[in-house]
């Protein structure tokens, strides 16, 4: 694409690990720019999953138009490929209204699917692998193959139940990315369409600061009724822990408590630990992103810095 005076501003991609302050910055930018927010979050798509997903409340959504929130029941699947199609449609619609698309969230695979297509499978995650090996030691590889069959029947059908390496890798891909191997292989790479993106990433410079924010937010969610929210989902009877919605961080650990697997305080401890590990994986994804602008969420001029980057990106497009 050759830039012309008629080119629209680039969509803003606001990324970062969980609890890094993305929502607050997005709302601040909405006070200064004519944006509409597109959620890039694999949990926010589900109705009834509000507290544990830190879903923007009604007041926030009244202030600024939000998209891809509350579009599915937790029993329904949602994929990165579907997100990419939905997001591109919404970007075009938002631009047609003369506004700027602001895509906000922490599901890194969704960002990757949108901007690059499925260029590669996710890299190995040693922690996930160790846990899968421990589960196989207790339950046997055929049991893990049966789990794979519920999540990705096409992949399970081509693997022997005792093919340990490939069963483990398939389950690892699903857990790390939220996308099945069969979906990865079926989705072609999207050719470069010339779209330009402004990629902003929030990250506290000290890991201990991010860990503290995660713990504080998890306890705040518990005080707001997170357990009751999971209890209502649990009571439906048609949901189970292998669904992508229930595998979301925090939900999975509280679900295990309701299943009698652990005490509540242990579930909370596991939830905080899992959220910290999730943030670590998010940062690993972010470090592989090209043309990324890193921002410290604690800097006093955060909003002005983000606006300056937007102005510079817009100028480069219209020059």
Q: Report the β-strand fraction as a percent range.
A: 5-15%
Question: Taking strands numbered 1, 2, ... along the chain, how are they ordered across the largest sheet?
Answer: 3-2-4-1-5-6
User: H/E series, N to C?
Assistant: EHEHEHEHHHHHHEHHHHEH
Q: Percent of residues in helical segments?
A: 40-55%
Low-confidence stretches: 1-5
Silhouette: globular
Task: Report the structural category.
Answer: alpha/beta
Residue-averaged pLDDT: 91
Query: In angstroms, what is the radius of gyration?
Result: 20 Å
Q: How many beta strands in the DSSP annotation?
A: 6
Distance between the termini: 13 Å
Largest sheet: 6 strands, parallel
Count, helices: 14
Secondary structure layout:
Layout: E1 12-15, H1 22-30, E2 35-40, H2 58-63, E3 66-67, H3 80-96, E4 100-105, H4 108-115, H5 126-139, H6 141-151, H7 153-157, H8 164-177, H9 181-186, E5 198-202, H10 207-223, H11 226-236, H12 251-258, H13 264-287, E6 292-295, H14 302-318
Parallel strand pairs: 1-4, 1-5, 2-3, 2-4, 5-6
Helix pairs in contact: 3-4, 5-6, 5-8, 6-8, 10-13, 11-12, 12-13
Describe this structure in words.
- The protein has helices at residues 22-30, 58-63, 80-96, 108-115, 126-139, 141-151, 153-157, 164-177, 181-186, 207-223, 226-236, 251-258, 264-287, 302-318, and strands at 12-15, 35-40, 66-67, 100-105, 198-202, 292-295.
- By secondary structure, the protein is of the alpha/beta class.
- The chain has a six-stranded parallel sheet, with helices on both faces.
- Helix 3 packs across helix 4 (108-115), helix 5 (126-139) crosses helix 8 and helix 6 (141-151) crosses helix 8 (164-177).
């Amino acid at each position: 694409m050759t830039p012309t005076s008629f080119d629209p501003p680039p969509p803003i991609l606001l990324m970062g690990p969980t609890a890094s302050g993305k929502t607050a910055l997005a709302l601040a930018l909405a006070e200064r720019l004519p944006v509409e927010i597109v959620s890039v979050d694999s949990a926010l798509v589900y109705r009834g999953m509000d507290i544990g997903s830190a879903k923007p409340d009604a007041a926030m959504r009244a202030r600024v138009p939000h998209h891809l929130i509350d579009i599915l029941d937790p029993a329904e699947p949602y994929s990165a490929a579907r997100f990419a199609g939905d997001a591109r449609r919404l970007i075009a619609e938002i631009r047609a209204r003369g506004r700027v698309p602001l895509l906000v969230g922490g599901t890194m695979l969704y960002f990757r699917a949108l901007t690059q297509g499925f260029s590669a499978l996710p890299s190995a995650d040693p922690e996930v692998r160790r846990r899968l090996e421990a589960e196989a030691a207790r339950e046997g590889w055929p049991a893990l193959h049966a789990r794979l069959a519920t999540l990705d029947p096409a992949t399970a059908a081509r693997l022997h139940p005792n093919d340990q390496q490939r069963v483990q890798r398939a389950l690892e891909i699903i857990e790390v990315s939220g996308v099945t191997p069969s979906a990865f292989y079926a989705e072609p790479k999207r050719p470069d369409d010339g779209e330009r993106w402004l990629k902003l990433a929030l990250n506290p410079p000290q890991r201990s600061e991010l860990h503290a924010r995660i713990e504080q937010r998890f306890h705040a969610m518990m005080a707001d009724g997170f357990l009751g929210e999971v209890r209502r989902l649990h009571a439906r009877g048609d949901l189970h822990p292998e669904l992508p919605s229930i595998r979301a961080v925090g939900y999975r650990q509280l679900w295990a408590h309701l299943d009698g697997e652990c005490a509540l305080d242990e579930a909370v401890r596991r939830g905080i630990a899992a959220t910290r590990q999730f943030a670590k994986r998010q940062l690993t994804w972010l470090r592989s992103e090209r043309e990324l602008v890193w921002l410290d969420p604690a800097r006093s001029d955060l909003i002005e810095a983000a606006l300056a980057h937007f102005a510079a990106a817009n100028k480069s497009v219209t020059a």
